[in-house]
Amino acid sequence: MPYSVTDLIRFYNSPFSYWCYKTNKLVEEKKINEKYKISINQTNLISPQLLKKAEEHEIILKDRFRITEKLNLVDMSNKQSTNETLVSVISKKPDVIFQPYIETDDLVGRLDFIRVLENTLEIIDAKLSFSVKENHLIQLCAYKEILENVTGIETNKASLFLGDLELHSIDLEDIFSTYIEIKNKFIKFNNEYDENTAPFPKKGEDLKEFDVEAKKIWKEEGSLEQIYRIQEKQIEKLKDNGIYSISELKNTKLEKIEGIGNDTFNKYKKFANLLAKSSDDEINYEIKDKSLYGLLPQNKGDLYIDFEGYPFLDLKRNFEYLYGIWFLNEKENFKYFWSDNEDEEEESFVDFINYLLNHLKSYPGAKFYHYFSYEITSLKKSSEHFNKYESEVRELIESNHFVDLFKIVNSSLLIGASSYSLKTVEKLAGIKRTEDLQSGMESIKSFEEYYFNEEYDLKDSIIDYNKADCRNLYLLHEWLVTLL
Length: 484
Description:
Shape: globular
Distance between the termini: 64 Å
CATH topology of the largest domain: Lambda Exonuclease, Chain A
Helix content: 40-55%
Number of strands: 16
CATH class of the largest domain: Alpha Beta
Strand order of the largest sheet: 2-3-6-7-8-9
CATH architecture of the largest domain: Alpha-Beta Complex
Number of domains: 3
Number of helices: 17
Strand content: 5-15%
């Protein structure tokens, strides 16, 4: 039985994720026992709105061919299309064929577009991405092999229709041999599949909805993958020197390893020591910069900001549906600007910037604390998109009113955890979350339900989540000051 090209790409991105996916599918089909079912992280499943956006992206190109360029387009998107029907359609020399389903003994797939040229065929695949990725090339190679086997026509041309709405010509010659190796490994993997033996999840794999399962394995086995920001190539160098676990790294007598800088190796050993002493409830840390990267004490005028954005309404930027601000005030500590559409988003952006500018009139030295670079990037993009407050946003940034607490933490502390996310770091300050929503992806999912399915009662939960992020930034800053 042939495998889908989609499955091949999942395997290419992560053999572990593919094994989990295959195992769950066999459980659902009652081919293996229910006990093998693997838990999934629902928040990492592909958004229905992203799938809808991908379909719309394909239709844009379809309409361009059919309406704008007035090409003869044959639609084969119905599930009954076969190899024979495709060959028959090609023989009639249309300009474009849309979504034909074809299969070989090894692989099956539904191509987005085929251009029928004079003596060859061109494969066109639609992707929302703004750049060409290697898995896109592997997918095109798979389609090329299937198409050539089915039609007997050499397929020398391939293109990607990306998020910039442009067609990008792709050369598959250099990567085709790599594709064949991957396909052979994929088929061998399936032939040797064992529901009792999962491949080890490696650092850097696209684990998708099985990321929590992978992290559980890393923790249970004391794996090097737990070290913050360690790369797979560095893990391999450690293993080449007999270091396979956090415990072995912590206790190693080695002082240097070829291919890893001495400072980096020493930092990894410190991470290993902290990880070994830490738990989910109590995270150990070490101060490496007593000045905490120049952290300032809290002042009454300081603000703590956090935004909630939705990525699937516009191809080029997030829709910023919530701007949140936490501040010191005896009567009220939280203010937010909510948007249900782009017009309201523009108003919210203007109101937010005006709030900052007016606030500075009362508190000229105020700092606006945030965590990581999202808020700064968002303000730049929004000012450009709405063509408003570009110079003001630039001036606020250049005058150092914005302070990234992530930079403070990352530069000043070594933490016995695999992540420096706000949700992890705030545990150091003893902050506990009690809100219904516990992660950014949960917030995005809730906004989808609110926005598209009219689950309006979810709005309060989303606002509470944002409020907690803003408040916890304040509490984190308060705790960091005690370390000075």
